[in-house]
Amino acid sequence: MPPPTFELIMAKTVVLERKPLSFSERTYLPQIATGLKTTFSNMFKPKVTLQYPEEKPVIPNNYRGVPTLVKDPNGREKCVSCQLCEFVCPPKAIRITPGSVPEDQDDREHVEKAPQEFEINMLRCIYCGYCQEVCPEEAIFLQDEYSSSGFTREEMINNKEKLYELGGTLPDRHYKWDKKKEAETDGNTH
Amino acid sequence: MMDWMPQGLWFEVCLKVFFAFMMVGAVMTMAGYSVLAERKVSAWMQGRVGPNRTVLPFVEYIPIFGPLLKKLGMFQPLADGLKFLFKEEIVPGHVNKFYYYLAPLIALVPALTTMTVLPFGQMYWNDGTVSTLALADLEVGILFVFAVSSLGVYGIALAGWSSNSKYSFLGGIRSSAQMISYELAMGLSLLPVFLWVCAPGSSESGLSLSAIANSQSGGAWLFLVQPLSALIFLIALFAETNRLPFDMPESETDLVGGFHTEYGSFKFGIFFVAEYAHIVIGSAIFTVIFLGGWHFLPFMEDPWPANWIGSLLGVGWFLAKTIFLIFFFIWIRWTLPRFRYDQVMHLGWSKLLPLALVNLIVYLLIVTVIDQNAAANL
Questions:
Q1: Cis peptide upstream of residue B6 (ω within 30 degrees of 0)
Q2: Angle formed by the axes of helices B166-197 and B265-290, nearest 10°
Q3: Where is A158: in which H helix or E strand?
């Protein structure tokens, strides 16, 4: 079988007809007039600028903003100070001082630990979300707060109080420690 | 007509100085607000809002009016000017100091000098005489404008040379080449205009700017009579004022900042103001020559009374036309991209110059024919 000829290999090329420019086109003046019309009509179109401090952008769901600590719907602290987030944090922005659950919280006495202090240095944080991903208690979330500013370095370290203030309360699907307690009272410890 | 004035040389001098300051103030204010107009118009054309934050503290609390001024950015030129004044003044070590300091002044002075011969209205006196409002209504006004305005390029060329930087140098070279190329077409495009206005038998003669504006009163504006001249003059005006699409000396995409790369703070501010002053004066001159100056509309007598109200309305109408032309300058800038250097040269030498010559010859023939007929009918 003979090799295919050149015409067969090549895809069919469409040669566009290029008309020579007419006189008015060569002066460019009609084209300039069209351009002027376009820019002029643009002046009266609605503006796309978002005037930031007065107008806030719409934050999409699953936005990774400032990391915060959340409480469960009963107002109880969820963090058990396991320090997994501190361990996983790539820029080492999290520092946890573990402590015990306060004596007066009867419904949490079966929980072993709670953070005595929880600090996130927002000058180090890279908003990667690993802390949220790793947390076994679903206690830390990157929420929709995106504007974090301060005048000193110290101001930029969010302490436990600040973190709970930013985090608020999120719905809880598991109530893990309540279930554990129930299981324990039923004599069904794992 | 000046009988009511106290006599005396000193008084005359003081009055002239006062008028000169008024004129400089008016033109500089217009230049400052052209910068604001440039920022606002470019913003609107690009779907943005432009400067809308600057406001004086006490103006802010005036109801309706205050917020409106703030929204229009009316105090932005003030803030910009203050910024230029108070910025750190950096003089690079490699510049030729004397000429480096001299260049901005040389750029500004011609821009401010041309305004002396610029007529901007008519004064109707009580005794029925009419005089032109201008600092000096020269008989050779247009020649003076050409002579002085082209000196402005020396400032740019000098800035480019004294900066000892390749970008500035290229900017200066391009600017002088462009100025030389377009000056010719500009001058040639005006010859037929004066030929037409000063044709034998017409009431006007000479190269006076006020005469050419008055010749359009009640008749056709000259841009209707000589559209080609007006077009060539307008294109050359864009080139002379270094505006896009001809901003060769700046060409910030390939020359960093062009001739003012090494300039900062107030010295850059002076270049900036000089550029806009050129635009204001250029627009005013185009208005005087082709758009009827302070006269109302083509083929219409001025509708305003021949007294001081009429004088004021005339000046206002002249200002309105000038402001429209300034807007047109800005409008063109945000519509067209810049020409390449060789395209600028090509357009100037092999298109505009022959076109201006042909235009001149055609009108020469037309004027001659009209003149012969007029002579035959006598």
A1: no
A2: 20
A3: strand A157-158
Q: Which of B169, B192, B37, B44 is nearest to B100 (CA)?
A: B169
A36-58 pLDDT, tens digit each: 999 999 889 888 888 888 888 88
Query: A49 contacts in B (CB within 8 Å)?
Result: 47-49
CA distance A97 to chain B (A): 46
Nearest to A35 among B41, B48, B336 (CB): B336
Q: What is the pLDDT of residues B137-161, one digit of tens each?
A: 777 888 888 888 888 888 888 888 8
The secondary structure of B278-295, three-state, reads HHHHHHHHHHHHHCCCCC
Q: Identify all chain A residues contacting B44, using CB atoms and an 8 Å cutoff.
A: 42-43, 47
Asked if B345 reaches chain A (Cβ–Cβ under 8 Å), the answer is: no
What single string gives the DSSP state of each residue in B329-361? HHHHHTTSPPPPHHHHHHIIIIIIHHHHHHHHH
Task: Choose the closest CB to B335 out of A39, A46, A47.
Answer: A39
Cα–Cα distance for residue pair B231/B237, rounded to 1 Å: 10
Coil, helix or strand for A116?
Answer: strand
The ipTM assigned to this model is 0.78
> What gap in Å lies between CA B304 and CA B297, rounded to an integer?
12
Task: Determine phi and psi for A4, rounding to 5 degrees.
Answer: -60, 145
HSE value, Cβ hemisphere, 13 Å, CA-based, for B323:
14
- pTM of the model as a whole: 0.80
What tokens appear for B114 in the block? 């041309």
Residue with tokens 């550029």: B275
